[in-house]
Amino acid sequence: MKLLTVEHVSKHFAGHTALDDVSLSIPQGSVYGLLGPNGAGKTTLIRIINRITAPDSGRVLFGDRPLQPDDIYRIGYLPEERGLYKKMKVGEQAIFFARLKGLSRRDAIHRLKIWFEKFGIESWWDKKVEELSKGMAQKVQFIVTVLHEPELLIFDEPFSGFDPINANLLKEEILALRDRGATVVFSTHNMSSVEELCDHITLINKSKNILSGNVEEIRHQHGAGIFTLDYRGEEQTLRQALEGCVEVLETTTSPIGYNTLKLHVADDSTVREVITRANEAVELRSFSEIIPSMNDLFIRAVNGNL
Fold first, then answer.
1. Strand order of the sheet with strand 247-253?
2. This prediction's pTM
3. Among the CATH numbers 3.90.550.10, 3.40.630.30, 3.60.15.10, 3.40.50.300, which is that of 2-220?
4. How many other C-beta atoms can be found within 10 angstroms of the C-beta atom of residue 282?
5. What is the pLDDT of residues 141-169, one digit of tens each?
């Protein structure tokens, strides 16, 4: 089931096209990565979903109906541009934001105390926001984003400014929110986070959706036919046996007795023949395909080489 569907959305500003006929579907209960270089149109799309701005054409569906004003209460949004009132106390400000999302003061305090303890910031309840470090402030903002338990959570660069320990804490919480039924969309430049967290992605470049789908399917679909072959024996003998079948890209010699060739096999139908020839020429230890990383695919797609 699709929780959110974007249909042919376009948005133009003076002399600039931010989104050009963008469509995508976000499955319910998934973690969905919204990727793209700076200025590609990701933040504009997020603002349209949050009804901060409206599309010039196209529409956004929440479930099976057009997005409505009251749907903002079913969405939690953490923008990249962080903003807290510096002179307010941390606890009171968190309560203020929770009340804006429809929680009573009593429910807000109860939920906030649980989250503050989970994130190890309970001692900061009565301190002023201006006393918080950047990472502490981001924890507070994350908490007020998820506190009302929305169906859809949207995070714009959520790991920016976090050290590895706190970034990992945030990743665990995002997965836990998904497991409790939330659908999560996050925009990021951190491709390792995409591989760790995302079920599906959309890559926007120059205002257009140029790639969408399941992460693992995309990685396998756009593999470049690159393999590694580990063996024991004479390299020259192996090269002669494989001549005409492969392109040898790289050679690595191991101190423990096995060597490695990195190969490009242009035609999938010849993979079995490559294995047979190698096995007859040397002692074959392993033969495996190198699945491209999301970082590799991001660069290739943006450069038009996918």
1. 247-253, 259-264, 226-232, 283-289
2. 0.82
3. 3.40.50.300
4. 20
5. 999 999 999 999 999 988 877 888 888 99
